[in-house]
Amino acid sequence: MAATADDTAQHTDPPASSPPRARRRTGPVAMVVGFFGELLITAGLVLGLFVVYSLWWTNVVADRAADRQADKVRDSWARESDDGGGGSGGPASYDSKNGIGFLYVPAMTGDQILVEKGTSMKVLNDGVAGYYTDPVKATLPTSGEKGNFSLAAHRDGHGAKFHGIHRIEKGDPIVFETKDTWYVYKTYAILPETSKYNVDVLGKIPKGSGRTKAGHYITLTTCTPVYTSKYRYIVWGELVRTEKVDENRTPPRELR
C-alpha cells in the first residue's frame, strides 16, 4: 500500500539544527594592524584635504583679494583723472599701498596681475606680484632711471600668478601698465633654474642675462620645479618703448 501524506509526515525526522559557530576572537596583531590602517586612511583624507586647500582654495581666496585691490587701484586712478591729477601729479599713484600698476604677460596668462610693493608672503599670498625691496631694490620704470624692475609671484597656490612662466619664450612681450603709461618690454633671456640665493639675477645689470651695460630691464622670478621652492626660474626682458595711456586706456598692440 502506498504511504499517505500523513504517514510521510509522521515518519520524517526534523532536520538537525546546526550547532552555533564560535565567534573568532581578534588577535592582538590584527587589532594593531586594523588600528594603524584606520590611521592611514584618516591621514590620507587629511592630506588630500590639505592639497585641495593649498592648490585650489588658496587660489580662490587670493584671486578675490587681488580683484578687490585691483578695483581700488583703478578707482583711485579714475578719481585722480577726474580731479585733473589732484594737484599731486603721477608719482602719487605709485606710492599707493594698494598697488602701483598691472603686469601683462600673454604667453604666461591672459589675466592682468596687480603689482604691489614687497615680496613677503604677506604680500604675495594676496594673489599679486611684488617688486623687490630686499635684498636688491628694484628700479621702478616710473622713475625714468636705468635699472632692473625685478618682480616675484607664486607659481602654485595663493593665486599662482606665475604658474605658466615656463611658457614664455625669447621675443615674447611683457607689458606693465601704470596710471599714465604703458611700458612694453621684450623677453631676451631665460634661466630655467638657479639657486634661491642667487641675488645677482636681480641686479641693475642682471648677471647671467647676457647684458653687460645699464639699461631698462624687467625680471620675473618664481619657484621651480612646480610644487616646490628648491630653485628659482628667471625671465628677463628689456624695455623697447613706452606709450601714453589714452582716455579709453587702449592697450598696446602686443595685448590686442
Automatic annotation (TrEMBL):
Instruction: Show the Gene3D superfamilies listed in the entry.
Output: Sortase
Keywords linked to the UniProt accession: Hydrolase, Membrane, Transmembrane, Transmembrane helix
GO molecular function per UniProt: hydrolase activity
Q: Entry's CDD domains?
A: Sortase_E
Annotated region Disordered: where?
1-24, 69-93
Q: Which residues form a coiled coil?
A: none
Q: Which residues form the active site?
A: 154, 223
Q: Give me the stretches of Low complexity compositional bias.
A: 1-15
Q: Per the record, where are the segments of Basic and acidic residues compositional bias?
A: 69-82
The name of this protein is Membrane protein
Report the transmembrane regions from the record: 29-56
